Amino acid sequence: MHPNDEADFFSKCLASSDIFLIDGPRWQAPNPKVHQSLADINGNYCIVWSNQDADRLQSRYVHECGDWYCDSEFLTIQFLRSQLIDQVLTEGRLAVSTSGANEAQTKALSQRFKLYSSYLKREYSNAIIEWFNPNLPESSLGLNVSANPTKPDLQVWVGPHARNWMLRDARHRIKQFRSSVVEARLVMQS
């Protein structure tokens, strides 16, 4: 997500007094510091937790690093935040894994995740980027050869701010990771 898409998403989906943000799965104490503003999250891994699903999150002490580690991520939604670095926007992800949660917790988390996904699918666009390797020639799909570029990606949902950012400069790209060679461009820019 472009930082402005991220801000819109959080203001529309997380504006609830029972939703808390936690700066990653490693903490300085057994209980994490909780926030209700994305501005308070410094890292790229943000835990989205509702105290309606569980009164508190469990953690365990890790001697090797001197931190406490969240042992109840199955009671949360994990948000891996995008990074905007120069002309590259890294992919972000929302994920949920409810293995370990009871039936009521699984239902609540699944409903919340579905709500967030519905927002993204309503406000964002898919099939507007194609992946390509700029170090290889363009090619069609063939035996033992991947297409370069790929067909438009149906799995990646691009926010309106990210789309506009890409439209402003043909050099703006999306990558899975900052160091990735393969990058995505808007389909109309190919």
Could you please describe the fold and organization of this structure?
The protein is built from three helices and twelve strands, in the order αβββββββββαβαββ. By secondary structure, the protein is of the alpha+beta class. The chain has a four-stranded antiparallel beta sheet, with helices on one face. A hairpin with a 4-residue loop joins strand 4 and strand 5. The model has no long low-confidence stretch (mean pLDDT 92).
Key terms for this structure?
190 residues, alpha+beta, 2 domains, four-stranded antiparallel sheet, three-stranded antiparallel sheet, 3 helices, 12 strands
* Total number of beta strands: 12
Largest sheet: 4 strands, antiparallel
Query: Could you give the order of the helices and strands?
Result: HEEEEEEEEEHEHEE
Q: What is the spatial order of strands in the main beta sheet?
A: 1-3-6-9
| Average residue-wise pLDDT | 92
Taken from the alpha-carbon principal axes, the silhouette is elongated
Q: How much strand content do the residues show?
A: 15-25%
Low-pLDDT ranges: none
Give the radius of gyration. Answer: 19 Å
Structural class: alpha+beta
The helicity comes to: 10-25%
- What is the domain total for the residues? 2
The rounded distance between the terminal residues' Cα atoms is: 22 Å
- Figure out the total of helices: 3
What is shown here, in short?
The protein is an alpha+beta fold and 190 residues long. The chain has 3 helices and 12 strands; from the N terminus they run αβββββββββαβαββ. The chain folds into 2 domains: 3-122, no CATH class; 129-189, no CATH class.
